[in-house]
Specification:
The protein has 83 residues and is an alpha+beta fold. It is 39% helix and 31% strand. The chain has helices at residues 3-21, 45-57, and strands at residues 26-32, 59-68, 74-82.
């Protein structure tokens, strides 16, 4: 995993931890598509790692949706609730 991937994972994990510590019932995350992804079918490791970082804190994915950003690249919208 590259530097940018680790930075994304760390940032989203920190935000998720803060929301959890503040007692939020839900945490909504936007995950952008990695620039280096091959574009073929298969895992999107950046997304998997970011979701794992959030779920390690105690959140559980409740809803997952994908849309396009302004450049036409996919980005995920993930809603988490407390587990």
């Amino acid at each position: 995993m590259g530097f940018l991937s680790r930075a994304k994972e760390s940032k989203i994990g920190t935000e998720a931890q803060q929301a959890y510590d503040e007692g939020q019932a839900r945490f909504a995350a936007r995950l952008n598509f990695p620039m280096t992804h091959h574009g073929l079918s298969g895992e999107i490791p950046d997304w998997s790692k970011q979701i794992e970082a959030i779920e390690r804190i105690g959140w559980r994915c409740e809803f997952f949706s994908v849309a396009q950003d302004f450049k036409g690249r996919p980005e995920a919208y993930v809603l988490f609730g407390r587990s």
